[in-house]
Amino acid sequence: MIASYGRLLTAVCALASTAAAVAPLEVKGKDFVNSKTNDRFQIIGVDYQPGGESGFSSKNDPLSNGDICLRDAALMQRLGLNTIRVYNLDPNLNHDKCASIFNAAGIYMILDVNSPLSNGALNRGKPWTSYNDKYYEQVFGVIEAFKTFNNVLGFFAGNEVINEDATYSTPKYVRAVVRDMKEYISKHADRDIPVGYSAADVRDILMDTANYFECELKNSTSSRADFFGLNSYSWCGDSNFEKSGYDTLTEDFSNATLPIFFSEYGCNKVKPRKFTEVQALYGKEMTQAFSGGLVYEWTEEDNKYGIIKAEKDGSVKTLVDYDNFRSELNKLDMKQVMASNGTQTSVKPKTCSPDIIVDKKFYNAWDLPEAPSKVSDMINKGLSDAPSGKWVKVEATTIPNKVIDKDGKTISDVKFEILSTDTSNSPSTRSGTSSSSSESSSNAAVPNGPPSLALGGVGGLFMLLASLL
Ligand SMILES: *[C@@H]1O[C@H](CO)[C@@H](O)[C@H](O)[C@H]1NC(C)=O
Ligand SMILES: *[C@@H]1O[C@H](CO)[C@@H](O)[C@H](O)[C@H]1NC(C)=O
Ligand SMILES: *[C@@H]1O[C@H](CO)[C@@H](O)[C@H](O)[C@H]1NC(C)=O
To answer: For this UniProt entry, which residues form the secretion signal (predicted)?
Structure first.
């Protein structure tokens, strides 16, 4: 009995993943590519942490409230975004609604596996004290919670762990975390979900950091990062390619052999932000090195980086930065942004060796720590008690929240749409009332189309089966 349910369940899982809106992405050379069409994918996104860093607790994280996710997904569709990054997640909360919503909206997710709670991150000063099974309950717990979802673009093993305060050997611990996560994923997920690292823009050690994670290690191929994010705020106001230092970054990463992107950008020293860097970031020159980026950040918090203001009652005001970002995105030539390029996808990494590290103070050996035995057990057997993500039914709808623009005028066209299968959201997917651009030809989104039904049907069947088991 159990065996036959098991097989049925596997069949249903396979069905569920084909019914989802977005096609999983893969890493090929220095590009992200769509696994179905082989088109290049460039990240057009925002960092998503409603409530700011302090908005996170064991009761509430950015992907635990379906109503808020629905509202925000609709406003992101209107903007043309295809990716969010989420920093702090509690693996014990239920994220199924939010993950299914963003998926149906054609929006990918890059998820940090660390959290600010105790045992939630590596200690950069003494990493050996936190490299243990308690920490890995968090790391593998996040993987379990999200591995089902097609729209997981990747996981960040760490964010700015290696900085001025880090101890000399910290890089090898972070690379060991990449290895352990990739091994866990290869044993317990249906696809090789990419794993990467997000770096601070500390220019003296930036290239050493990238090279440390990027190089190939013959005796531990799984420890190589699949992508590299860079938090960069060097373009402020009406800057340009040279003044912002984007030219140097482009040159520095021109030989990269993995996807590079801005995991945070959007300097706010000059307000309002105009986001003129968007044309540079997605232009011909820069896209040889970069795969797009994520604006910091979605909601307005104390540090004043938001593009929308969310009120306690769920209503929203779109800020002038939202409009400015939107009009820059609408100028992009999406055909060019998503064009594949064989030169980019065929690059091969260098072998790890001390001579690829320039700064004498940067760790230049790859003697990675072995996983503690309890962690090896987790990798081999899987986390038994961790909740694992499941698809839920999502329906297209007009969102109930009141939305006003920067001048206080009501925006009435905010609608959550379900995109057709294998489609991701893009600036040209929808034309808002204020924009006169015609409906895109590359993205024939079918609002209320079959994916909704398919998802619902499969989700329902899945839940029925789950309750039988
Ligand atoms: C990139 O590779 C080319 C060809 O090997 C080399 O001339 C150039 O110096 C490299 N650039 C960087 C920034 O390493
Ligand atoms: C393909 O990529 C290479 C290297 O990134 C670049 O030099 C070349 O111009 C690109 N080709 C096209 C057609 O964009
Ligand atoms: C793997 O190779 C690196 C670099 O050559 C070396 O430092 C490390 O000790 C090796 N690890 C093992 C387990 O052999």
So the answer is: 1-21
| pTM given for the model | 0.89
The first and second tokens of residue 109, run together, are 């997710």
Percent of the chain whose pLDDT exceeds 90:
82
The H or E element containing residue 26 is: strand 25-28
**15-29, 293-307, 388-402: least confident range:** 15-29
The 3-state DSSP class for residue 263 equals: strand
The closest of 210, 228, 286, 214 to 254, measured between CA atoms, is 286
Q: Are strands 316-318 and 403-404 parallel, antiparallel or unpaired?
A: parallel
Phi and psi at residue 231, in whole multiples of 5°? -90, 110
- Find, among 51, 164, 174, 66, the residue nearest to 112 by Cα: 174
Indicate if 160 belongs to the active site. yes
CATH topology of domain 22-381: TIM Barrel (3.20.20)
Q: Is 54 helix (H, G, I), strand (E, B) or coil?
A: helix
Query: In the predicted model, what is the mean pLDDT of residues 324-330?
Result: 97
Structure tokens at 426: 């893009």
Beta bridge pairs of residue 155: 111, 195
Q: Which atom of ligand 2 is nearest to the CA of 341?
A: 1
Tell me whether strands 415-416 and 397-398 are parallel, antiparallel or unpaired: antiparallel
Secondary element (H or E) of residue 459: helix 450-468
CB 467 within 8 A of CB 4: no
Contact 422, 22 (CB under 8 A): yes
First CA to last CA across the chain, in angstroms? 10
Interatomic CA distance for residues 433 and 411, integer angstroms:
9
Asked whether 444 lines ligand 3 (CB < 6 A), one says no
Q: pLDDT per residue over 18-47, tens digit each?
A: 345 799 999 999 999 999 999 999 999 999
Q: Name the residue at shortest CA distance from atom 14 of ligand 2.
A: 341
Per the CB < 8 A criterion, the answer to whether 225 and 254 are in contact is: no
> CA-to-CA distance for 174 and 172, rounded, in angstroms?
5
- Residue 52 has which token pair? 């700011």
Report the DSSP pairing between strands 227-231 and 415-416: unpaired
From 366, 370, 376, give the residue whose CB has the most ligand 3 atoms within 8 Å, as the site to mutate. Answer: 366
How far is ligand 1, taken at its centre, from the CA of residue 303, in Å?
A: 39
| 175 confidence band (pLDDT: 50, 70, 90) | very high
Instruction: Quickly list H helices, 19-132.
Output: 66-79, 96-104, 127-130
Cα(276)–Cα(327) distance, integer angstroms: 10
Residue of 30, 343, 348 with the most ligand 2 atoms within 8 Å of its CB, for mutation:
343
Beta strand segments in 282-424, E: 292-295, 308-310, 316-318, 397-398, 403-404, 415-416
